Every structure is written in C-alpha cells, then in structure tokens.
Amino acid sequence: MIKPHSVEEVINTARIEDIVEEVVVLKKRGINLIGLCPFHNEKTPSFNVSPTKNIYKCFGCGKVGNSVQFLMDHEGMTFPDAIRHLAKKYSIEIEETHNKNYDPNTQLEKDSLYIINEFAKDSFVHNLLESDEGKRIGLSYFKERGFRENTITRFELGFAVKQRDYLTKLATKKGYNLESLKKLGLTSQYDQDFFRDRVMFPIHNLSGKVIAFGGRTLSSDKKIPKYINSPETEIYVKSNSLYGIFQAKTAIRKADECILVEGYTDVISLSQAGVENVIASSGTSLTEGQIRLVKRYTPNMTILYDGDAAGLKAAMRGIDLILEQDMNVNIVLLPEKEDPDSYVKAHGSSGLEIYMQEKKKDFILFKIDLLLKEAEGDPVKKTGVIKNIVESISFIPDILKRSLYMRQCSQLLDVSEEILNDESNKMIQSRLKYQAKRAGATRQESDFIKPRPKPGLHQQAKTTAAAIGDEYQERDVIRILLNLGHLMYEEESNTSVAAYIIVNIKEILDSFDNELYKAIISESAGIIDKNESFAAKHFTNHENVEIRNVCIHLMQEEHEYANWDGQQLYLQSQKPPEENYVADGLQSIMRLKERKLSRTIKEIEQRLKTIDDTDETYSLLLAAYVKTKSTLSEIHKTLGTVVPSKI
Ligand SMILES: [Zn+2]
Q1: What dihedral angle (degrees, nearest 10) is formed by the CA atoms of 414, 416, 417, 422?
Q2: Residue 306 domain boundaries
Q3: How far is the CA of 111 from the centre of ligand 1 (A)?
Q4: Ligand 1: distance of its center to the CA of 438 in Å?
C-alpha cells in the first residue's frame, strides 16, 4: 500500500495540464485551457482544463477529475498505478508498504498484461543487444538497414531467439502467469514462444506502454509469414492503435501534419532522418478510431505511399472515414521502385520534404484522376466513377468545402455541377434517414432488459455513441456474410459460409437490434432456402438504397472482424487475420449468438420472478429457459476456453 502522505504529495505536485497535454492538444482560453475531449467524439472542443483548480471537466460528456482520475480513466490504470506513474514523472520518492511482495498476477488483469509485455520487450531488447544470436542476426539486420543505435533504443527494437520456449520459460520462472502469456500471444497454445527467430517491433500506446508486438522473420523461406502480430487483447485493439504514435505525437502537433506510411521500417527510417511526424497503420486500411487518434494532434494528414502501391487501394477504402472526420487529406506517391525508406536514404529528409511539397495532391482530386484513367472510354464505368467520387465528397461535413470540391469535380468529370449536387444530396439524405431510424430505435430500447457491454477501458478512443445494443456485433455478421458468404465452409456437405451463417443465426434473428441487418439476413435466408448461391452483389446492387449503401460500405471494411465494442474477442488461433478470416469470422457469429441467448436467458429469469408458478405461461417460459440454456452451453463448448467469464 502507498502511504497516505505519499499519495497526498503526488496529487499536490502533479499538474493536470501536464498530464492531459500528453494526449490532448490544449489551447488557452482565458485562465483555462481547452481541447477536444479524449473521452467522447466531438468536433468543437468542450474539454476544459483548469490549472488553478488542477482539474479537468468536459462540458460535452461530463467527465471530471484530477490527474489521477485522468490516468485511471484514460490509460485504464488502477489508483496505485496512477500514483506510481505520477511519482515517477515528477521524481517523487513514494513510501510503500509490502512493496516487495508486489505480485503482478494479483493485480488487475490489464495491469499484468502491460507488465508482462514490458518484460517481454525488455527480454527482446536484451537478446538483440547482448546475446550472440541477437547481435549476429537481429542487430546486423537493423544495422544493414541503416538504423542507428539511438533509433533502435528509441523504438525499443528487439530480437526473439530461435529456441522454442525461451521467453515462455523465462517469464514463467519469473512468476508470470502462463494464461496471460497466451492471451498476449507471446506463448502459443502448445506452450511455446509465438515469436521466434524474428526481429521485434513493439507497438506502443499514446503513453508509451507496450500493447503488442510485430515480428518480422529474416528467413528467406517463403512458407514462413514475413510479419506476425500479437492478437487483440484488453490492452490492444488494433483498430484504435497506430504504429509510431507515441514517438511521433509531439512532432505531429508541432508540424500540424501527420504523415501516414505503410510499414514499421518506413516509420523508423523517416523518423531517424528527422521526419518525425510519421506513423503507420500496419497494413490495414485506416479505421475511425485511428483517425480520431491522429485528429487529437492535427487535422492534416498526408499519405505517403510507393508509386506502385498495392496498399493504395487499401488507403482508398479508409478515405471516406477520414473525410467524414473533417480532416484534410493529401497524398504523395513516390517515384517508381522507391519507398519512403529508400527515398529518404538517397535524398535525405530535406530532399523528401521538397519532394512532398511538390507532389502533394489533394486526395479527392487524386482519386478522380486515378479512377478516370481506369474508366477511360467506358461510359458505364465512368458513371460508376462519378457516383464513387460524389459519395466521397458527400462525407465532407463542411458545406463550403464540399461545394468547392463539387466545382472542381464538375470540371474534371465534365458533368454539370447541378447533377453532382443532386446526387450528393441524395446520398446525404439517405444517410441521415438511416441515422434517424437508428436514433428512434434507441428511444424504444429502454423498455427492454438489455445488458449493455460494460465500457472497456480502451473505449475512450472509440465511437460508441451511435451503436445500439448488439449492433456492432450484428454488423460484423453482415460483413462476414457479404465478404465470405460465397466461400465454402464444408466441402463434403456442400455448405457455403452463407448457409452456415443463416442456419446459425435464424433462431436469434428476432432479437436483432438493427432492422436493416435483420432484413439482409432474412433475404439471404430466402436465397439459401431456394438453394441459390449467395453473392454479395445481390445486395450491393439492391433496389433499396439503404441496404445498398450499408452493404457497399461493409464490403469496403473487410478483415476487421475483431473490432468488438467493449467485449474482448480473443482469436482462437494466432494466425494472422488474413489467413484465418473464415475461422475468426465464424467464431464471431457464435459469439453474437451467445450474447443474444444470454440476454434472452436474463429476460426470462426476470419474467419468471414476476409470474406465479401456477400461471400457465410459467411452464412455457420454463421450457424456453431450459432449451435456451442448453443451446447456450453447446455454444460454449464450440467456443471452448475462449469464453470470457463476464458474459
Ligand atoms: Zn467529453
């Protein structure tokens, strides 16, 4: 326990503005400071920090507190950990009783995950710098890439040795819990190290804690995946994390610009060359959570990609989201056969900066160019291009900016501005209608007993305001259906993934929270019943504009199935999601079913309490109760050990 006088000293010394400023850009307003709230999504700042009172208060969501509270709410720290963290920051010596018996396994789960990751990171760093194997293989690789020692230290790069269970043994000997090691993806299901014979890139959160790892093999064996990553955990939500953000945040704020590149090594080389405002989204297209992370520091994003980038398409997918968040997006394509790493090596940081200034292109204009080239001479394709572009523009919240774009587009596309505006308005209207419908559903919802997921500690970076009940999970199912439905689930019985989904989802369809998703499932069931083959284009060309829009949108977000609101979804295998998407996808369907059935059980329990057992509905309810329970236990069996106990 930390002695009360130490706690007091820490609280009195800590400056709220110092702590908040690590994650929020603050501007002076009178005697206070103001910024965008890190706890809720907002466009105009309502997060107030009072240096004189040493507290913060958000007038949007009502969050209020001091430095300790901020760390607890924002970083998910426990009270003692927040005190320890602040003491370290302000070099305060604290007195603690029982300090020697500090056992990470008895701390909150989340804390222990951070601690174990830290331990693993230290071990990887030690291997790289001290062991013969690490020096020979890992360090020489980094040196070959031109990484200097201070860069290696800054990014805490490391090396995982070849020995099958080196880290696992080291960690368990130290008293760390094997289950936690497995959860973090450091230890595989066979009690061996997951990362072996790889150079290691730790992924940090905003405050610099290690939340996950990426490991790159140096072997030329094509069967070995080049990069493998930690699975998602309580402390690592992929869609809310960006590689390099911890090292880059100050520079991003200073430059008022964030440069987005594709890979870890691009981030590191650019940063080493002096271009420090750089981050990577690690291969997937940008998500809303990631954009919001950047937006805390700047509204300006420049995407820097290889000239021949396959990643360009992925960047395109995320772009509407970026526009919707009212960010200014530019793109710079590097000359052919160059990547950010090679370019900065050849031309230095000033060369790169000059190149970027010259070649920087507004993203929408860039998109028009690219798509028009593809559609050249094909009027049907061109119509598609126009729709696509107008849709992107329609996401821009600022009317003035939007109309400016419309004018430019009308020239480039050779279509009258009026037609473009009409089209854009239609799109905006249908989105508004859809939102209104969802808002309506929220109001009615209060009549039902619906246990909402407890807000996860990582939740500050998520937009949860719009989701109702299980909508996130339902959306995942639709996304899986659209993206994977046409694939084969089981060859022998000729069952498609779509058929598998429909069979499993049918009995919970009535409890779907989102009417649109419900309609899509019902219609799919019709297709499967008629023994027709399932094709996503049926929905992306659907006559109902709402269905069409939602499905097109979902088709653009593939491979992000693990983005579960408030619930942690542990992937059963630790294969990269690209390889394991069918299994991961189907697992999330079972999980949705589990949620719905658990909810049903609670509802029945409530009703049983209010009904006399002589009532004739009592026995009916009881029968339903028993049946649901047994179905649920079947699902638990299927899901195996990965069921989180809190459901
Ligand atoms: Zn707020």
Answers
A1: -120
A2: 240-359
A3: 25
A4: 22
The whole-number average pLDDT for the span 425-433 is 75
Residue at 470 is within a domain: yes
Find, among 230, 237, 206, 185, the residue nearest to 563 by Cα.
237
Give the pLDDT of residue 447: 31
Q: How close is the Cα of 63 to the center of ligand 1, in Å?
A: 6
In this structure, the answer to whether residues 199 and 315 fall within a common structural domain is no
Q: Residue 441: exposed, middle, or buried by beta-carbon count in 10 A (0-12, 13-18, 19+)?
A: middle
Nearest-angstrom CA–CA distance, 273 and 416:
46
Q: How far is the CA of 295 from the centre of ligand 1 (A)?
A: 15
Q: What is the pLDDT of residues 352-400, one digit of tens each?
A: 999 999 989 888 888 888 888 877 878 788 888 888 888 888 888 777 7
pLDDT over 70, % of the chain: 84
* Residue 218 and residue 128 in one domain: yes
Domain assignment present for residue 453? The answer is no
Q: What is the DSSP secondary structure assignment for residue 619, as one 8-state letter?
A: H
Q: Which of 334, 359, 384 is the last residue of a domain?
A: 359
The DSSP H or E segment spanning 20 is helix 16-21
430 and 549 belong to one structural domain: no
> How many Cβ atoms sit within 10 Å of the Cβ of residue 307?
12
Out of 313, 328, 359, pick the residue that ends a domain. Answer: 359
Q: Do residues 497 and 486 lie in contact, with contact meaning Cβ atoms separated by under 8 Å?
A: yes
**Dihedral (Cα; 586, 573, 158, 219), 10-degree rounding:** -100
- CA of 61 relative to ligand 1 center, distance in Å: 4
CA of 39 to the centre of ligand 1 (A): 5
In a shared domain, residues 566 and 527: yes
Q: How far is the CA of 554 from the centre of ligand 1 (A)?
A: 28
Distance 41 CA to ligand 1 centre (A): 7
> At a CB cut-off of 8 Å and minimum separation 6, what does 323 contact?
329, 363, 364, 392, 393, 395, 396
**Whether the Cβ atoms of residue 468 and residue 442 lie closer than 8 Å to each other:** yes
Q: State the distance from the centre of ligand 1 to the C-alpha of 509, rounded, in angstroms.
A: 35
CA of 23 to the centre of ligand 1 (A): 14
456 in any annotated domain? no
**Total count of residues recorded for the chain:** 647
Give the pLDDT confidence score for residue 185 in this predicted structure.
Answer: 93
* Encoded tokens for 612: 């006399």
Strand partners, 201: 214
- pLDDT, tens digit, 9 for 90 and up, residues 219-230: 888 888 888 899
Ligand 1: centre distance to CA 639 (Å): 37
Count of other CB atoms within 10 angstroms of residue 639: 17
* Beta strand extents in 14-120 (DSSP E only): 27-29, 32-35, 47-50, 55-58, 64-65
Distance 427 CA to ligand 1 centre (A): 30
- Does position 452 have pLDDT exceeding 70, yes or no? no
Query: For residue 519, is it within any domain?
Result: yes
Is 407 found in the same domain as 294?
no
- pLDDT score of 13 more than 90: no
CA of 290 to the centre of ligand 1 (A): 18
Ligand 1 centre to CA of 463 (Å) is 12
What's the gap in Å between 60 CA and the centre of ligand 1?
A: 5
Question: Residue 236, Cβ neighbours under 10 Å: how many?
Answer: 23
Asked if 325 and 228 sit in the same domain, the reply is no
- Ligand 1 centroid to Cα of residue 36, in Å, is 8
Distance 292 CA to ligand 1 centre (A): 14
Alpha carbon of 156 to ligand 1 centroid (Å): 33
Instruction: Tell me how many domains the chain contains.
Output: 5
